[in-house]
């Protein structure tokens, strides 16, 4: 697989711990580092092209809805937020849904601590594709309890709905993950999905650190078994 210069640059940023391109930094993010940095939670947006991953991200970051569709390669964002009274930083990697970029997804997924797996309720193909995204994430992270939300976007287009609510709920129940419907246009549940995912990531980190200290012996983490074919 060959990567072009901008893909290599993006991968380098991820491996360096999510250093941001100044264009994408939230205001104030370039200021001097405080003595102790707030906890960083790394979220990855995944899903087919055109489902609204960028629109959700931009609505969360800047409170604006982008009408135009400009396919993403990969963009990263960072913002300080208050999560249940604690200041934390969220790092969002908005990935490409378009198939042209499928080959580099593994590298992006590796850096994620939690995933928002987005489809459009108006497009059954994008719902089908969530199955593949889920499998790829589980394969790369090797952890079937990785923090993960299934997100049905474009809820404002209810009259064009083509993915039945029951099917969405059933899939989420089978995966044992939450299902939430959002609208990047009206902002419905936009904060909710990012904050709920951060709560899952935070809870995972605290379980992991207790496990490291011997309190919980990997109770919640269920590693996937490696099948020898
Ligand atoms: N009505 C409505 N339109 C939306 C919503 N979310 C996104 N869109 C529109 O859908 C189109 C695609 O949105 P994007 O956010 O660019 O899609 P994406 O998932 O980032 O696509 P890729 O970058 O190619 O993976 C744009 O024209 C958006 O304005 C939504 O909640 N409601
Ligand atoms: Mg995009």
TrEMBL record:
It is a lipid-anchor. GO terms for biological process: signal transduction. GO terms for molecular function: G protein activity; GTP binding. It comes from the Eukaryota. Its EC number is 3.6.5.2. Keywords: Cell membrane, GTP-binding, Hydrolase, Lipoprotein, Membrane, Methylation, Nucleotide-binding, Prenylation. GO terms for cellular component: plasma membrane. It is found in: Cell membrane. PROSITE patterns: RAB (PS51419), RAS (PS51421), RHO (PS51420). PANTHER family: RAS, DI-RAS, AND RHEB FAMILY MEMBERS OF SMALL GTPASE SUPERFAMILY. Belongs to the small GTPase superfamily. Ras family. This is small monomeric GTPase. It comes from Danaus chrysippus (African queen). The lineage of its organism: Eukaryota, Metazoa, Ecdysozoa, Arthropoda, Hexapoda.
